[in-house]
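Recall the central idea of this unit: under ordinary conditions, the amino acid sequence of a chain determines the structure it adopts. In this exercise we apply that idea directly, starting from the sequence alone.
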Amino acid sequence: MVLDNLGSSLRSTLNDLRGKSRISEEDVDKVVKEIQRSLIQADVDIALVRELSDSIKSRALGEEPPAGTSARDWVLRIVYEELVALLGESTDLPLEQQTILLAGLYGSGKTTTAAKMAWWFSKKGLRPAVIQTDTDRPGAYDQAKQMAENAEVEFYGDPDENDPVTIAREGLEATEGADVRIVDTAGRDGLNEELIEQIERIEQEVGPDRNLLVIDAAMGQSAKDQAREFEDSIGIDGVAITKLDGTAKGGGALAAVNETNSTIAFLGTGETVKDIERFEPSSFVSRLLGMGDIKQLAERVERAMVETQEEDEDWDPEDMLEGNFTLNDMKKQMEAMNRMGPLSQVMDMIPGLGGGLMDQLPDDAMDLTEERMRDFDVIMDSMTDEELENPRIVGASRTKRIARGSGKPEERVRELLQQHKMMDRTLNQFQGMGEGDMERMMQQMQQQGGPGMGGPGGQNPFN
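Accordingly, the structure predicted from this sequence is:
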């Protein structure tokens, strides 16, 4: 993800300040140099790096920290606020009728982003539609149609029409009943007069409410010049950063935001239509600094539970708090977890578990955990209905049979049963808890984001 190297290296540097009540110029220089090194490696524009560094150093040495605030927490607060300021506000995208035009180069991920955005709007209760106007790239129509089907949203395109402006005009007429219409345009390997002229014609025909520039997170300093060209041509209201699930540096995207004087709208974090996040600067920086993101986590949990229930209407997660917790319930919980995205992303959202703790884990720790969960799923598929409803009857002979049927070792079967016991014991603790008890528990979780950090929850933890 963008700036991940900054997060891990900065957390280490800040930990060196533990126990100090006052901060020296030498301490500040060390923090600033670490920030500069990480941002430059991430392809962030030098001018932006210098501006951020100067602000952090000036505030850390010139402002008086609140009484009782440690040196580490004071610097962390300043870094938090300055990074949020650097990233800017989230692009204004009201949940109302609107038309959005997507611009960008070939391979930036516009078509995928169009479907992801449409899916996101649909989950907010609106009726979206994708209009595909790319007549240049082979397979653009088929890809866009398939992605729209995956997102379960309305789609318009015309593979027999060669004029993208005609497609745009007819697409608007065909999707007149949609609340949000997302117009995907053609890209090129590089900016040229033909691309600029074409997108200007489409923009004039469509009259969009917002123009979003789609930027590949792997794009470096060239993003700055390309962003300027699009800004001069049609005007850019926001940026969607794609392919953040890989090893992308992301600094070029920040340069594009700064060059167009715009903001970030969405983050693409994976390959499926559900792998998209609305950009929230405070939440993003909270995760970056290891402080979690309760707000984003809650949204993912709620969405995953709803989708799991829609798939199996007979399953109700609230029943787990009222009766026996079965292996069928555990299987449904695992299905919901899979819908929340990669485990590493989910862990980053949990205060006290992301950030610094993740840095200390082996590189393959998350892969091994996900592999274990997949094994559990296969094992449960080899169990009888009676065993899934009453796992206590699974003894040595049944364990051997289940292991043979699933192709997994007996030890893995026993691990599953032990995991079920632990989860059952935990759920029993929740039984009988009132609404006030649950609220106090959630407040405790938010307050465990780290010493002196308070609860992130998508808000500034220092207020």
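Confidence is low (pLDDT under 50) at residues 352-358, 444-463.
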